Amino acid sequence: MASESYVIQTDGLGKTYGEVRALTDLELKVPKNSIFAFLGPNGAGKTTTIKLLLGLAKPTMGTATVLGRNIVTDNDEIRRNVGYLAQQPKFYKELSARETLRFAASLYFKGPKELVEERIEYLLGIVGLEEKADRPIEGYSGGEIQRLGIAQAQLNFPELLILDEPAAGLDPEGREQVLKIMESLRHESTIFYSTHILDDVQRVSDRVAILNKGNLIAQAPIEELLVGSEGVAYTLVLEGDTKNAYSTLSGQNWVSSISEREEKGRMHWVVTVEDNEVAKKQLLRTVLKDDRVDVIDFGLKQYELEEIFMRLVEEDDTSE
Amino acid sequence: MSSKNSFEPVTGTGWRMGFGALFKKEMKTWFGTNAWWQQAGLWSVILVLFGSVGIGDPEAGVFIFYMMAMIFPGIAIIIISQERILEEKRSGSAAWILSKPVSRTAFVLTKFIPSAIGFCFSMMLVPGLLFYVLATYMGASLQFFTFLGSLVPLMLWQLFLSWLTMCLATFFEKEGPVMAVPFPFLFIGPSLAQHPIYGPLGPWGLLQYSIGMTTGVPYSILPIIITVVILILFLIVAVFRFGKHEF
To answer: Are residues A115 and A203 in the same domain?
Structure first.
């Protein structure tokens, strides 16, 4: 992919605070028009990365570009074209949502006043705050503050929207609303968001990067990541005498491994294959050739992101 | 729905980036809310009451007014000033503002300058004018413009406390160290002002300068010069330090 197709591109980006390495040698590539999840446990370095990209902190190593501009030397221009929602957004509590948006808009636009008001009204509608728009923020719930945060981040028609833990700390309803808003904005901006909520990632993102203890341990389209590092695998639930079927299948050159466990008198196999095209045609047929085996269930193994995430993080932890 | 091109963008660059919008917002925070008249009312009552102690001796009343105007509003000014930058740094609202096209210099300047205007107007000028009306009614012989001019050194003193506090707030993350430095100045200042040698050598001498203006006893101009230089230094140091701050 050409470098201009990436809205964020980092090259060995790192940050240390004294002796503590918050971020090490980050090589991140965020394609244009994607919803990119930046996933990691608490303290992984997600917020540090975002602050570096926005010029709120300075890198101690490496470089990065956002929208093709250097994060250190051309940060003013980056901030004109990016929208940002902080992890726990804090606005001036004495202002109403509408006044907050007017103030934020005044940092980007001088006018015309009616268009600014129209933009504010439009965004209040998107985030569902029209009815509360003129009440002081101090009475808002966490979810409402978060939604206001998304609205103010979207004011300047940003090419890139950076959201730091947009759904953290919200109740299920609040989370649902935030995710819906994110999905509705995908045609307007590239969305780069940090999170540790795996369900949300699987639901709205098309690409994922996983950070652990300041190190990038995976970066891929979500479908690719969900396939798992072992490649494509199929699950089978079998009854009967499976010994011969097992040895026949193990002998196939397109099968890389079979793991089996017994549960309630049934055998559960996970067959990892090297050539999926052959496997699609041959796997089930090969097993069914043996009359002593009944196939109760068969399908492509669906990894859950949590499974992948936990394995990658554990592998990274043990490799240290 | 309008596109981005239909809007007139803010074009300020360099240190001016975001200055206009932030300045307007900060001025509105003081003059667009109840803050300006509540502070003006509070300090008018307190300072006029103190000044009226010298009801039988109007000249003594004027002296008491200056003394109290140096100390008491300073307490509020230090407390309010420490919140202006420190609270925004801690709460995350500074990071929010600075994630937008706003220069850090503009952020600092729009904390220092609008605060200075608000403090001087509500906590010095309004109480001073009310005291002038009372004092002349009681028989003090005060020239209006001389008295008005004598409020300027007192304003500079309050700016010294305010800008010192805000400058410290760019260095520290807690109230303790931010307020620990200006408060001793506030309480030792009036005594130091009386000292024949050290009196004129710092902002504390501004009290004597104000008194000298109304009594006609000339006092060294050094406190004015020193204070102006210190205020400029506070501003420069604060801008430099805040420019290095990492959120």
So the answer is: yes
